[in-house]
Amino acid sequence: MTIAWRRMVAWSIDWLAILVWVGVVAAVGVPLYLAGVIRMTHPLLLNAVGAVLIVIPVTFALAAFEAGAKHGTLGKRAMRLRVEPAEPVEAPEQLDFGRALLRNALKIAVPWLIGHAAVYELTRTAGEGMLGMVLLVAAYVLPAAYLVTLFTGSHRTLYDRLAGTIVIAKS
Question: Looking at the keywords, is Transmembrane helix present (predicted)?
């Protein structure tokens, strides 16, 4: 199996873990909402709550797994992959947290938040506004660009290039 396909399997494993977290948040939030304890209707507030409860913790958790001695998320470790700096300076095997956070913010947080903003804008305008459609296209084009760069050329995704990272197979 090529490294690109191993990364896809790893990402699928990671998404299962992410969905567990989403389930935990929903198991707490939905009953509170239905009981009337939480009543939020403003799209910006809903997006902010989603970011604080789901997107930010997921992004930070994935970065923590990839930084330091862990070298990878649960999926990457299961598929025997590791994330490293593309051009090591001092400790070639260690990815610092800042770079891991940038990598995961570009990979996870940016497309996810753009997608949320698109849904809220399209809902708010009943699909009539142009901004919602622009955001929706961006929310799909960005991950598509990541996939294209994963399967072409050097197999480094756009977010890996921007963060200065590389994913390699463990020996």
Answer: yes
SS3 labels along the chain: CCHHHHHHHHHHHHHHHHHHHHHHHHHHHHHHHHCCCCCCCCHHHHHHHHHHHHHHHHHHHHHHHHCECCCCCHHHHHCCEEEEECCCCCCCCCECHHHHHHHHHHHHHHHHHHHHHHHHHHHHCCCCCHHHHHHHHHHHHHHHHHHHHHHCCCCCCHHHHHHCEEEEECC
Q: Closest by alpha carbon to 108, among 75, 69, 151?
A: 75
Q: What is the pLDDT of residues 114-154, one digit of tens each?
A: 998 898 888 888 878 899 999 999 999 999 999 999 999 88
pTM, full prediction: 0.86
The whole-angstrom separation of Cα 50 and Cα 59 is: 13
